[in-house]
Amino acid sequence: MKTICGLVKIIETVMKVIVAVVATVIILFAAYSLYDSFYINRHAFSSYELKQYKPIPVIENDDNGNGSDYDQDGFSQLKEVNPDARGWITIYDTNIDYPFVQGEDDLEYASKDIYGKSSITGAIYMKTENSEDLSDPYNIIFGHHMDNGAMFGDLEKYKKEDYFNSHIEGWLYAAGRYYKLEVFAEMMTDAYDENVYSIDKLKISERIEYIHANSDYVKQLSESDKEAMELFETEGPAVLDDLQKSGDPAMIIALSTCESAITNGRIVVFCKATPVDFNDILGADSSLGNNGDNGDNEPSVIEKLKAIGHPFGADSWGFLNLVCLVYCVLVVLPLAKTGLKFRQITVARKVKDIYNGYGYDGADAMAIVKYGDDIKKKLKRFSRRMNWGSALEIIMAVVALVVFFLTQDMTAPVVMCDSYTPLMIGISVIMLTVDILFFVYRGNRILTPDEVAQMPKPEGNKR
């Protein structure tokens, strides 16, 4: 019977351990999934780091302090990071403030970010058939429809007339030139509309006619606008300087995103693009530098750190590494049962006082005398374990903190593990081993004062 009971207890213990492990794994995976979703949605917005590449001209002054030239230094750095970068697009008072790229096909950057890394949110990208220098009279730029308004999510708002009428200006940079953008139409269509998504199907005059006839909201282009676009269609970039002087548009930029309410539905916002000097863009809206932010607001500490870059160049961080760090920190914190090992120091001090005869007399004192040698030996071993164990655990906790913060960039995307995960797991295993060898998990602890006082009294000394 005892054997059966013992076996049942063992099975019960094993089942409890299995349930605890499974529950822990589920909780950790749920936490990882929630953080991953949060990160995807939050970091789909144009970040402080990304805006360092914004092609804002740097004015080089001559000896007299007069501006002599412009230099798009930020965007040239982005080209070094990703040669597929083609330009930058901004629509005032919206979240549309991104560089755009051009891939080998129209699906490449639907699942890759501006840095070429795999990403659910993708990047803003130009249609592959378009010329990379924007020498076509009609150009299409795509972006994912994010519900939180990131990427091209704000195009959904153009379905409302008030928003359409109040968010019509922006700018675009490509091939060393700046263009002033003016929204003139919004259309609901589908992905198979060749009159919208085929570059060569229609001439620019036919394209304008189709847009005018099929858009939900439209501001009619003037005859001079049409003539200027037809001239650009015929002559190409050679007439851009003339168009800039006359203030006439050169091309149409179509911004396209998905319409979630309709199968294969698309929302397309059409802009006319007029070549301008950069100062003309600043004149249109002085908040250009930060898309509605006048530049007075300092970026957060996290944004600054992210812009500077991580010491080890990490482009992601491991969730399991954080779990290991949390474990190492909790081991040295006096919480719940973990704190028993630290309270044992106080207990040992009291036992030492008891052994020296303080606080007890009579039969209790005789019990101390009888068991004193054993207590003294245990107290000595215990003190040694506590000193070594505490020192080792504190050292390992500090090592875990240093390793984590040097190798993990929590402003980057989260992954389940990375190349530093084995190191963090190794530190955690060492910490667990120290805890088992030196502390409460061995069941080896010093007796409390009350336990000492309750020891069996020597014969003839009962009270």
Q: How are the elements arranged and paired?
A:
Elements lengths: L1 H41 L5 H4 L8 E2 L5 E3 L3 H9 L3 E7 L5 E5 L22 E3 L11 E5 L18 H6 L2 E6 L2 E14 L3 H4 L6 H11 L2 E2 L4 H13 L4 H7 L4 E9 L5 E12 L1 H7 L16 H8 L8 E2 H14 L7 H16 L6 H46 L6 E2 L5 H18 L10 H5 L10
Parallel strand pairs: 4-5, 6-10, 12-13
Antiparallel strand pairs: 1-2, 3-4, 3-7, 5-6, 7-8, 8-9, 8-11, 10-11
Helix pairs in contact: 11-13, 11-14, 12-13, 13-14
Description:
- There is one protein chain.
- The protein is α+β, with helices and mostly antiparallel strands.
- The chain has three domains: 1-42; 48-308, Beta Barrel (Sortase, Chain: A); 312-453.
- It is 45% helix and 16% strand.
- It is built from 15 helices and 13 strands.
- It has helices at 2-42, 48-51, 73-81, 161-166, 194-197, 204-214, 223-235, 240-246, 278-284, 301-308, 319-332, 340-355, 362-407, 421-438, 449-453; strands spanning 60-61, 67-69, 85-91, 97-101, 124-126, 138-142, 169-174, 177-190, 217-218, 251-259, 265-276, 317-318, 414-415.
- An eight-stranded mixed beta barrel has the order 3-4-5-6-10-11-8-7, surrounded by five helices.
- α11 (319-332) runs parallel beside α14.
- The radius of gyration is 35 Å and the shape is elongated.
- Mean pLDDT is 77; it is low at 67-71, 283-297, 299-310 and 358-362.
